[in-house]
């Protein structure tokens, strides 16, 4: 905060409103917008959108994978809500990695 000369309120705004998927992608905090914008994006914008999606998928893999190991396996995985229901790429990315644990 000293280096950037910002106060606590400014830092809170950055953490709550400008980080996460938005901070990584530079496009949107909403995965739907990243998904719909993937094809027309080029160059640096596409690379950042890809990075945001890959980090998102990796976080799911790490979280679910740790529970699979803790439970000693699983019978099924159910994807729900917006991303789980409508984003084949996220589901595929997660399942491709988790099949190693099945």
TrEMBL record:
Pfam families: Acetate_kinase. The keyword Nucleotide-binding applies. Keywords: ATP-binding, Kinase, Nucleotide-binding, Transferase. Transmembrane segments: none annotated. GO terms for biological process: acetate metabolic process. One of its GO terms (molecular function) is ATP binding. InterPro entries: Aliphatic_acid_kin_short-chain, ATPase_NBD. Belongs to the acetokinase family. This is Acetate kinase. It comes from Lactobacillus helveticus.
């Amino acid at each position: 905060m000293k280096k950037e000369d910002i106060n606590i309120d400014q830092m809170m705004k950055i953490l709550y409103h400008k980080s996460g998927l938005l901070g990584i992608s530079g496009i949107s905090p909403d995965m739907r917008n990243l998904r719909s914008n993937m094809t027309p994006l080029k160059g640096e914008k596409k690379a950042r959108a890809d990075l945001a999606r890959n980090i998102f998928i990796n976080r799911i893999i790490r979280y679910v994978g740790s529970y699979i190991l803790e439970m000693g396996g699983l019978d099924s995985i159910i994807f729900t809500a917006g991303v789980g229901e409508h984003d084949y790429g996220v589901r595929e990315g997660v399942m491709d990695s988790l099949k190693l644990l099945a």
